[in-house]
Amino acid sequence: GHPVTLAGRALAPRTAKRVSALVEAPVTAFLSHPLVAWVAVGATLFGLYPTGLYASILQEHWAHLAMETSFLVSGVLLFRSILGSQLGRRALPPIGQLVMIFAVMALHAVFAAWLLSRPTPLAGEFYASLRAPFVPDLLADQRRGAVVSWILGEIPVILTVVSLVVRLTRDDR
Predict the structure, then answer these.
(1) pLDDT at 67 over 90
(2) Helix axis angle, 138-172 relative to 61-83, nearest 10°?
């Protein structure tokens, strides 16, 4: 929940100041707003896969790395908005944090359901051209991947809920 704090402690003082200035910049505050961060996570999922952009991204290694980076950055911004603090106070009240967690769960569920219900595999031509002998059925493999993705995607959400419950319990004392 606080990668910048960790980086600040590990980096040289001058570099840590630059990172801190970047984190405190107005654009970062905007991108860390809970609704903006949630939309960014949704856009990375639903802006890449259903649009066919994913098949194009697979053709270029740099584009695939950029896609993975966008997933990481949007996820960090989202969880910073839920777990992080701004100017010494929570970014969201406890009920807002829980609502955001359930909104993230909804994104994962809708995406997994969409992926499971597809009649054809995503980027089927690309994956068929690989002729991977250990994947005889691309659609069945995609469906297994959707279930695994859904489960693995919920692990950070569950950990966040546990963290919020611990935090709220401490605050009540």
Answers:
(1) yes
(2) 20
Closest residue by Cα to residue 45 from 65, 75, 84:
75
From residue 3, how far is each of 10, 77, 80, 102, 124 by CA, in Å? 11, 11, 9, 23, 37
φ, ψ (nearest 5 deg) of residue 70:
-65, -35
Compute the Cα dihedral for 151, 157, 162, 163 and give only its sign.
positive
| Residue (of 120, 124, 125, 126) closest to 59 by Cα position | 126
Tokens of 134: 């250990």
- What would the pLDDT profile of 76-119 be if each residue is shown by its tens digit? 888 888 877 654 445 678 888 888 888 988 998 899 999 999 99
Backbone angles phi, psi at 86, to 5 degrees: -130, 120
Per the CB < 8 A criterion, the answer to whether 77 and 40 are in contact is yes
Residues 6+ apart with CB under 8 A from 146: 112, 115, 116
pTM for this predicted structure: 0.76
3-state DSSP assignment of residue 89: strand
Q: Which amino acid is at 131?
A: R
